[in-house]
Write the C-alpha cells for this entry.
Amino acid sequence: MDWLEEQTEKLRIYIRNLSFRKAMIAYILVLAAAVCGLSYLTMIFCWHCEMGIWERLGKTESLPLIVYQKGLLWSYQHHFLYTADELSLLCFDFLRVWCPLIYAFPGMILAIFLFYRKRLARPVTILEDSVENIRRNNLDFHVSYDCRDELGMLCDSVEAMRLELLHDKEEMWRLMERQKELNAAFAHDLRTPLTVLRGYTDLLARYVPEGKVSQEKLRSTLELMTEHLKRLEDYSRTMKGIRSIEEIPFSPERITFQSMDKKIKEVVVALNQVRDVKILYTKSMPPRDSLYLDDSLAMEVLGNMLSNAIRYAGKQIEVLSDYDEGNREWILTVRDDGPGFSEEQLDKALKPYYKETEDGVPDEHFGIGLHICRELCKKHGGTLNVANSIWGGAVVTASFLAGTPQEP
C-alpha cells in the first residue's frame, strides 16, 4: 500500500510539473476519451431504446428495408407519424447521431475551467499579489509556488527580482546611513579645530591691544592658526572624496613624541582660552623617542574626546599621554570631573547616533564622536574604552599601536 501511495504521489507531482503545452494536450486527450466513452454509451442506450419501440410496434421485420429505402429513421413518414412513439424515435435517433457534439461543447468548457483552476488560478493570484506588493514598495513577502511549469519558473523569477530589489534597497539604505554618518562626522570633527582657532583669536584679541604679546609669540601663534586652517582644508578635501568613515585615508609615518607633545599642548592651550573648564595635560616620557602613526587621525581622536569631556566636566579635565613599551601602544586618556557615564551610556556610548536625553529634552549633539574615535583607533590597531573613575567622572582611553610592522 505504501508503494502504491508513493507511486501515486510521484505521478501527481509529474502531472503538476508538466509544461502548459503538455498539460493542455493531456486535458484535450482526457476530454476526447470522456466524449468518446459517453458517446458510445449514449449510442448503445439510444439504439436499445429505439429497438424496443420498433419491437412494440411490430416493425422489426421490415426495419432493414425501411432503413435502406428511407435512410435515417427519423426522416421518413408513415401512418403513425407524430405519435408519441414517433417523437421518442426522433429524440433517441437525434441523440444517438449528435451526442459527440453535444458532449464536446460542455466538455471543452469544463476542461478550460479545470485547466484554469488547477494550473493558472493560484500562480496568477500569487503574481498579482507580488506585483501589487512591489508597486507599494513592500518587499517583506515571499513568492513561492511548488510547480515547475512556466508560471512556476515565472514565480521564481519574480522572487529573484524581489530579492534583488531588497538587496538594492538595503544597499541604498546602508549608503544613506553611511552618508549620514559621514556628514555627522564631518560636522563633529570641525568643532575642535574651529574651537582651537577661536581660542587663538580670543588670545590675540585680549592681549595684542595691551601690548602683552611679543612679535615672536604673535608670529608663532599665527603660524599655528595657519597650520590648523590647513588641517581644516585638508580634512574638508578628504571628506569630500570618501563615502564612509571606514574610507578615511590612513597614512602612518614616523613622528617624534616631542612633536605629538607639542600638538597636544597647542590644543590644550587654545581650548583653555575659550572654556571655563580647566584642562590639565600630563605626559609620561617613554624610553623611545618616536611613534609610527597617523598624527592627524590621532589628533582628531583627542579632539573628539576633549569635545565630549568639555560638555560634561564640572571644573577640570585631565589629559594623560603614556606609552606602553611592552605592547608598543601609545595611550591617550581624557578624564573629567563630571557625573560620569550611566549604565546605559557605558553600554551604548560607542554606538553611532546614541543620544541620551535629560528630563525629556533631546540632546542637540550628533551622538557620533566616540564612535568616530573608536573607528580611527581601529585603523591604528588600537581600541577605545569608556569607564567611570573611582574618584568620579568619566574616563575615555584611546590606544594606538604605534610601532612599525618590521619592529620586534
Observations:
- Residues 84-135 form the longest helix (52 residues).
